[in-house]
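Per your request, structure below.
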């Protein structure tokens, strides 16, 4: 489109999914939209104090208070109307079904772009727990949210909610090339970053973890591979990372 040349490194997303809009979904949609609209008419103590001071300085206390009160009331009514009307109108425009496209979800895009950024060293040929966990980690760093796919429901096994702050213990079944241990790897990277960041400048851990991609392969597993990677790329924290990994069952 628009005469833009192909990038040559296209990122593929799952096919668009048709979703039927239920009454429950519509209700949640309106509530979510209403909560996302900014409030400009909150009447708190600071507003009341400012109004009183302005009235005192102006010399026309009655007139100033009346003007300020009318302004506050007008803003309140306008905001209230917007917060009611916009969600209702948006809900009507939804129709009976919609098409969910994961390529419009920021955290999904960050995850897939992370695979591309790491592909100069390791090709994203498999959905191993290590590779998916690293992609999730960088996606959380970009988005600033500790939970991925938190509103995607059950749209595919790889789009289920994953949290960076869970405390899952290691299990052999997590070491597969199907991404089963993605949550575990994500949370381990998050834990180690949180610990080391106490002693290093901002960005130190993230840069080292990105360098760590050079030690990854499609066959890197969690049990042996993860400890070796931290020993190689964080040698000054070998003891600390070993203890953290041991606490998680490795």
């Amino acid at each position: 489109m628009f005469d833009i040349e192909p990038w040559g490194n296209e990122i593929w997303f799952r096919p668009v999914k048709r979703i039927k809009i239920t009454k429950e979904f519509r209700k949640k949609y309106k509530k979510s939209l209403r909560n996302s609209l900014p409030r400009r008419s909150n009447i708190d103590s600071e507003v009341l104090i400012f109004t009183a001071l302005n009235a005192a300085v102006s010399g026309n206390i009655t007139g100033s208070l009346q003007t300020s009160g009318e302004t506050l009331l007008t803003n309140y009514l306008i905001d209230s109307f917007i917060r009611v009307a916009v969600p209702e109108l948006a809900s009507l425009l939804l129709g009976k079904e919609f098409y969910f496209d994961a390529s419009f979800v920021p955290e999904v895009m960050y995850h897939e772009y992370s695979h591309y950024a790491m592909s100069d060293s390791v090709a994203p040929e498999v959905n191993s727990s290590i590779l998916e966990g690293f992609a999730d980690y960088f996606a959380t760093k970009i988005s600033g949210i500790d939970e991925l796919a938190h509103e995607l429901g059950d749209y595919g096994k790889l789009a289920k909610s994953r949290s960076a702050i869970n405390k899952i213990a290691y299990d052999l079944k997590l070491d597969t090339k199907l991404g089963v241990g993605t949550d575990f790897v994500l949370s381990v990277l998050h834990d180690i970053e949180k610990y080391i960041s106490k002693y290093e400048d901002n960005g130190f851990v993230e840069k080292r973890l990105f360098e760590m991609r050079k030690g990854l392969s499609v066959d890197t597993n969690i049990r042996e591979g993860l400890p070796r990677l931290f020993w190689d790329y964080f040698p000054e924290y070998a003891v600390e990372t070993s203890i953290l990994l041991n606490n998680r069952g490795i």
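The longest helix spans residues 61-94.

Regards,
D.
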